[in-house]
Amino acid sequence: MSLLGSLPGPDQIVPDREDVLRALDRARVQAARAAGRGMSLFWLILGPGVLVMLGENDGPSMVSYATTGATYGVGFFAPFIVLTFVMAFVVQEMTVRLGAATHRGHSELIFQRFGPFWGYFALFDLAFGNLLTLVTEFIAIQAGGLYFGAPPWLSVGLGGLVVFASLALRRYVTWERALMALALGNLLFVPAALFAHPDGAKLVTALATWRPLPSPMGTAFLTLILANVGATVTPWMIFFQQSAVVDKGLTRADLPQGRLDTALGAAVAAITAIATLVVCSALFDAHVDVSKLNDGADFATALQPLIGSAGASLFALGVIEAGLLAAMTISTSSSYAMGEVFKVGHSHNLDFKHGKLFFGVAVVSTLVAGTVVLIPGAPLVAMTLTVNVIATLLMAPALLFLLLLANDREIMGELANGRLANLAGGVCIVAISLIGAIYGVITVFPDLLPK
Amino acid sequence: MSDLSSLEPGQLTSVTRMPLARAKLGRGVLILLALMRLYVLAAIPIVAYAFIRALQAG
After folding, report:
1. What is the residue-wise DSSP string for A408-439?
2. How many CB pairs under 8 A join A and B?
3. A59-97 residues labelled b (16+ CB within 10 A) or e (exposed)
4. Which of B13, B18, B33, B49 to mutate to test the interface with A (most CBs of A within 10 A)?
5. Interface pTM, i.e. ipTM
6. Which residues of chain B neighbour A29 with C-beta distances below 8 Å?
7. What distance in Å separates residue B40's CA from the closest CA in chain A?
8. B30 contacts in A (CB within 8 Å)?
9. B46, A389: Cβ pair inside 8 Å?
10. CB within 8 A of A421, min separation 6: which ones?
11. Which residues of chain B neighbour A12 with C-beta distances below 8 Å?
């Protein structure tokens, strides 16, 4: 059964820039596949998974991992971070299948299959949450800049300019490769960790045994558990990766490489997250008071006497990169969603004339977020807290729609979730939703649990 | 005309701009969505409360 009306005939198709550029990219993929060049094929398809996973290693997430390492050291949380990225892979793999099967973004599928109420809800929930999250990314950029003595207007201004420059590329594949090059900066946390002279045997033991267990296991422990999950799986990731898969033009034939891309992104993101945990475990070993460390600059400054200037500088640079990459991916996820719901062009392959809304949303949200950070006395802490509450409380609806769509055989055909995918996806969704709800509740009612 | 043969028919923008039909939802899904509306109604004041509380905390 066709879910569409009559399709346009070949003579009715007027190719636009988006179609033409995507066709060029697809021709390269098909040539690599036909020639049996496996590595070349993987390189061509690599992108959305790496960007979404490293994009989620954003400013606030790196601070969460840093706080975890400084509070409990290396132990339980090292394998726990691996587990959260396994969950992230299970969730994000569904978006790859959805994008490849339907060639439509997540928000338009929700809008069209479940109606305007849920469509607009998903859109405005995403856009509002993304705008607040963008503010936190510019806070990270500002904090990293402060470590190097840069005034806030300079680091925030330069950050905004880099975001605008990426939008000016007007070619999906160029935009993606530029962001992937920037994403390599996330690996700066690995050499920073080496400056802390980590005990390799201790790390391996922790990964294998989940020990030593944190002590005491009070509210702080629970909050860090929840913050680490929140640092790995968030609603914008679902929307972004599906839209990026569509913009890149992936098809069913590309699914093996698309899954590998997502798995590679998860693995690299887990490595850098654990590296952050390791470098900040130096603060735990030195009994530094974590309660006074609020942002990337605080952590870099506290780390300097322990790991040296070079290590601390790498850490601060990593925080800047984390904020910058996330600012690009998160603003783009808002642009995709707006274009999808309002049925106007939504692609990095568009020119400015046909992509006014697409580029406009990213530009305006970046300008607003950057400006808010620079307003003296702006309630940045309140905003950061609210971002966490929104992201965690509203993860449940996002995951429910993901599961419903992945089971929608009318649009997914044979790519719909099987029993195993539903079991794995269902377990992840129930766990993440419960954790998110608990996080939301204890954030609002912090006195519910004993300290 | 540009060569679009490397694209699947469903990838053409002229096709992707055509809306899909609404899903036919079973009773179970409708109940889930109704519960989700209640959840969202409960979540919105919690978000507002969290923001006001954080503002007051400075």
Report:
1. -HHHHGGGS--HHHHHHHHHHHHHHHHHHHHH
2. 126
3. bbbbbbbbbbbbbbbbbbbbbbbbebbbbbbbbbbbbbb
4. B13
5. 0.92
6. 6
7. 8
8. none
9. yes
10. A94, A406
11. 14
Query: Within an 8 Å CB–CB cutoff, is residue A126 touching chain B?
Result: no
- B7, B22, B36 member nearest A19 (Cβ): B7
Q: What is the pTM of this model?
A: 0.94
Pairwise CA distance, residues A98 & A433, whole Å: 21
Write out chain A's pLDDT in tens, 451 residues.
Answer: 456 655 666 566 667 899 999 999 999 999 999 999 999 999 999 999 999 999 999 999 999 999 999 999 999 999 999 999 999 999 999 999 999 999 999 999 999 999 999 999 899 889 988 999 999 999 999 999 999 999 999 999 999 999 999 999 999 999 999 999 999 999 999 999 999 999 999 999 999 999 999 877 777 888 888 888 888 888 999 999 999 999 999 999 999 999 999 999 999 999 999 999 999 999 999 999 998 898 899 999 999 999 999 999 999 999 999 999 999 999 999 999 999 999 999 999 999 999 999 999 999 999 999 999 999 988 887 787 778 777 777 788 888 999 999 999 999 999 999 999 999 988 988 888 788 778 777 777 777 766 6
DSSP of A119-163? HHHHHHHHHHHHHHHHHHHHHHHHHHHHHTT--HHHHHHHHHHHH
Find residues 400-419 of chain A whose CB sits inside 8 Å of chain B: 400, 404, 408, 410-411
Give yes or no for A368 touching B (CB within 8 A).
no
A451 by DSSP, 3-state: which?
coil
Q: Is A390 near chain B, with CB under 8 Å?
A: yes
**Residue A5 buriedness (CB in 10 A; 0-12 / 13-18 / 19+):** exposed
Given the structure tokens 């994009």, which residue do they identify?
Answer: A55
Q: Does A8 touch chain B (CB under 8 A)?
A: yes
CA distance A165 to A143: 22
Q: Where are the domains of chain A?
A: 48-251+264-444
Contact across the interface for A26 and B10, Cβ inside 8 Å: no
Test B4 with A18 for CB contact under 8 angstroms. no
Please indicate whether, in this complex, the C-beta atoms of B17 and A109 are within 8 angstroms of each other. Answer: no
The arrangement of secondary structure in A48-251+264-444, i.e. its CATH architecture, is Up-down Bundle (1.20)
**Residues contacting residue A36 through CB under 8 Å, at least 6 positions apart:** none
